Amino acid sequence: MSQTTLDPIGAVGPDAIPGSKQPRGFLFAFVAAWFGISLVLSTLGGAAIPKVFAFLDDATKGVNLSIVAAVGGIVVIVITPLFGRLSDRTMSRLGKRRPWIVGGALVGMAGVVLLAFSVDLWQVVLGWAIVQTGYGATNSAVHALLADQIPMRIRARVSAAASVANALALILGAVMIAALPNDMQWTWFIVPGMIGTAFSVILFFRLHDIVRTQKPEPWSWADVLSTYWLNPVKYRDFFWAWACRLFVTMSIFTVSTYLLFFIIDRLDVPLEEASGVFATVLIAFTLASIVTTVIFGWVSDRTGRRKAIVWISAMLSAAGLIVAAVAPDLTVFLIAMVFVGAAQGAFISVDIAMMTEVLPDFEEAGKDLGIVSLSYQVPQVIVPILAIPLLAIGGSGENYSALFIAAIVFGVLGALSVLPIKGVR
């Protein structure tokens, strides 16, 4: 619960950070909070909401999900950098990040409750927007802690641990939705929501936060607009790292968002069994991801190399999606997704660490990492918008092959984007 009275300063060297020594249990609480936020957002967005639409109206489930995902994505694009910068400027006695961590989780939980009892499209849209706003605030503050409190010499390993937590959240969420009763919709939302909120509260109590002692400069409208922008010419390495993460995220998000529907419509799995198959695919994908996340996080910290691992893994992910797109049955599809999961594990174990090393300014880490988060959030708008015409290609049912082709193209573009980066090995 304690905090240190420090102003953020530029961090130099592998051990230097703006913050101070953390109490015992901080790293566990940090990773647990990352897990909890991932559990809420991935379970609700990837399993619970699609399941609601599949049971409510199977004929319009793809379009309905696209609408919800697009609206939620727009909300996150607006709030993520803004909340990150506001946390940079926060002068609370509780610290810069802690008020946003716990406050966001409580707001997000209110949206979870609304989703739990939603039966109409507008209710789902509103509930998901509230969830994205609340947990988006928490997410911004937690991400900023990577620059505030995690020394560079262990950053890839801590990032890898967070990525493993994210992967485990995907597994637990999918298994949870498959195990919960089909006739008790409220449990699909309340159970993961309670877990995510609880872990955020734990981090609130274990974080030795930075407390600002100097009042920040007043904001102008130009400052507000700059929250969403960094000059790509001046900060070229940051821009290319951001673009790499954007395209790779678009690749995976294109597949993951519509995965349940692909299993139902393309692989001909009955609706009642689809959640179980969905969980099996995610478990296989995630276990492969965990193995390579741990291995390449260690390799990256030991060698100091980030760029080569990111490039190779992005290309291998695209290759795996080619096999998945033409898979004739569930077995081949499962094998392909294991390959994609392994490639993604290597990518995410190094990508986050690379992004923190090309940040323009540690003093505004919350704002800059908020812009980093846009590379993950923008696909939540772009992909659903692109998906509507892609699914309509051919005019006879929803064209999931077109979605996979788009995902492959995005993956290749992501791999190519990392090549111009100069400041990271």
**What portion of residues belong to β-strands?**
under 5%
Counting DSSP E segments of at least 2 residues, the number of strands comes to 2
Shape: globular
Secondary structure class reads mainly alpha
Radius of gyration: 20 Å
- Sketch the major β-sheet: 2 strands, parallel
Order of SSEs: EHHHHHHEHHHHHHHHH
Q: Please, how many helices? A: 15
**Which stretches are low in confidence, meaning pLDDT under 50 for 5 or more residues running?**
1-14
Distance separating the two termini: 38 Å
Spatial arrangement of strands, main beta sheet: 1-2
What is the residue-mean pLDDT, rounded to a whole number?
82
**What is the helix fraction of residues, given as a range?**
over 70%
In short:
With 425 residues, this protein is an all-alpha fold. It is built from 15 helices and 2 strands.
How are the SSEs placed, and which strands pair?
Blueprint (H helix, E strand, L loop, with lengths): L2 E2 L21 H31 L4 H29 L8 H19 L4 H29 L5 H25 L5 H22 L2 E2 L10 H6 L9 H22 L1 H7 L5 H33 L3 H19 L4 H28 L7 H13 L1 H14 L7 H18 L8
Helix pairs in contact: 1-2, 1-4, 1-5, 1-6, 2-4, 2-13, 2-14, 3-4, 3-6, 4-13, 5-10, 5-12, 8-13, 8-14, 8-15, 9-10, 10-12, 11-12, 11-15
Describe this structure in words.
The protein has 425 residues and is mainly alpha-helical. It is 74% helix and 1% strand. The protein has helices at residues 26-56, 61-89, 98-116, 121-149, 155-179, 185-206, 221-226, 236-257, 259-265, 271-303, 307-325, 330-357, 365-377, 379-392, 400-417; strands at residues 3-4, 209-210. The protein has a two-stranded parallel sheet. Helix 1 runs antiparallel to helix 2, helix 8 packs antiparallel against helix 15 and helix 11 runs antiparallel to helix 12. The longest helix is centred in the C-terminal third of the chain and has 33 residues, at 271-303. The radius of gyration is 20 Å and the shape is globular.
